[in-house]
Each structure stands twice: as structure tokens, then as C-alpha cells.
Amino acid sequence: MSELILHHYPTSLFAEKARLMLGFKGLTWRSVTIPSIMPKPDMTALTDGYRRTPVLQAGADIYCDTALMARRLEQEKASPAFYPQGQEFSVAGLAAWADSVLFLHAVSLVFQPESMAVRFAKVPPEAAKAFIADRSTLFNGGTASRPPVEQVKHQWPTLMSRLELQLSRGGDFLFGVPSIADFSVAHTLWFLKQTPVTAHFVDDYPGCCR
């Protein structure tokens, strides 16, 4: 078994997913706290320029995507499984949807001016500006983009209602037992719960707040 090292910072959305996955597996891991914005000289030297968070180091191997991290952790410890037998395709499909569609909708809600004002209320203005400028570069030149917030507010009830319906059939978990799908949804909802401005986008759907 390789030594596992997670490079992350406490408020990172996808780092929360990685931490939950490591805890679910009951694996021992070391923590390296990295800056939330560039520059990140130590990490980018390790990853050959990759700047996003988190990064999982397993021996000499580096994993920069939580979907790949899940596969590696499954190799480290097969049980409990992220991909229950017979449901592999379904759980992976919902996880991919959550890590793209649900995630981008949540980011649009979080980056509303009202939400950002609360998040950075106790942070010096210069630090808040630096964070926002840093995050704006993540979507420049890429294939993913944040949908307009008014569009998100219109679509959000449909997305959450679908999750509630799935949970009503699966019980405490989306597919009846814990899977990678649950972790991919949980960290996005955790992100929204961080301030009262966005918490109601989760709290208004009690079926998703168990």
C-alpha cells in the first residue's frame, strides 16, 4: 500500500470530496496544506504546472482529478466500494453529472455578489479581489463555463427535485448503498451550505439534507 498525501486547503470544494472519500475508505493519509490561489510553487513543481485543488500523491504517482482518485483509492482498498457491483455504470454516470452540471450551477450561485460579500466579510479587500481574479482565470479558454445565475435559479429546482426523487427510491443513499455518486453530490451541497445566502438552495429540499 502506497503512502497517500493529499495536497489541499480547508475550503476547497473538490478537496472536501477527496477528504470524504478517504474517510469512507478508512485510509491513513497525510495532509499538505497549499495556498488557495496562485502562486503555488511547490505544488506546480510537483504537478508540472497543474494548479487546481486537490492533488493526491500516491507514492510516485500524482492524481489531479477526483474521479481518478476514486479509482486509485478503490485499488488501495476495495471495500467499502465506490462502485457497487452491478451499478458501476449508473453511479459513475450520476457522479459525472454532479461533478459537471450540478457543480457549475452551484458555482454560479456561490459567485453571486451577495454570496461573495458574506464569504469575504472578514477578509481584507485586497485578498478578496485576488481570490476572485484568480478564480476567473480557471474558466478562461476552457470548455466549461458558469451558466448565468438567473438561468441557474430557474433550473435549480428541477435538478434538486431529481435528486430528491432518486433518494426517495434509494433511501439514505442515491443508489441504496454508498457510492461515488453520493460523494460527488455531497461536496457540492456542502459548498452551498457555507453561507446563509446560498444555504437555502439546499435546505429547501429536505429530501437531500438527511
TrEMBL record:
Ranges for domain GST N-terminal: 6-79
Taxonomic lineage: Bacteria, Pseudomonadati, Pseudomonadota, Gammaproteobacteria, Pseudomonadales
Source species, domain of life: Bacteria
Protein name (record): GST N-terminal domain-containing protein
